[in-house]
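Worked Example 4.2. Consider the chain below.
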Amino acid sequence: MLRDLQDESGGFLAYIPLAAVFEPWQWVEFGPFSMQPSFSLQYVIYFFAGLGMGAYGLDRGLFDPEGMLGRRWAGWLVGALAAFLLWLIPTALIVKGQGEAVVALKMVADLGFVLSSATSCFALAALFLRFAAAPRPLLDSLSQHAYGIYFVHYVFVIWLQYILLNVPLPAIAKAAFVFTVTLTLSWAVTAALCRSPIGARLIKGKRPVLAGSS
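Applying the procedure from the previous section yields the following structure tokens:
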């Protein structure tokens, strides 16, 4: 477990310089697109880490269903909760104005954010490896199309939120609607793209199986 967390040192070094310039809740907008600049290098690190894990094989190494990650799911869950509190408590003090002058408090919050991001990912993966390893057609399809969903979902998320901006609905209702519709549309678009040889090659990493082919 500690060996896996050592990989987050790169994420910590990538986040701290930007966190010193931008607040975690600060956004930068480019037309219809927006992003949090303090997280920009984190996005890059996690994206290429995901590519590397996928190329090596999700059923091998760390993500082996019988491997150490799945066996230690309880430890990762506890670690994720502890890291979340390590980020949440100092961040709440800073937001309330009680820790603005304490540089060390901000450093603890930044460290907590990096650790919380990593441990949450590992804990979620560990839970699925431990309790959801049995094949399920719907989840298998979601897994196969996840890469494409990741690429196309942003357009739906942004414009659906914009459309609902002035609609008199509770925030939880808007969130549920945006999540459901975004997942459905992104999944459908990705499945359509995978019907072409190029789309299947780029998204699934394999050629599509054509009807009547042997």
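The chain is about 70% helix and 5% strand. Residues 1-133 form one domain. Compare this with Example 4.1 before moving on.
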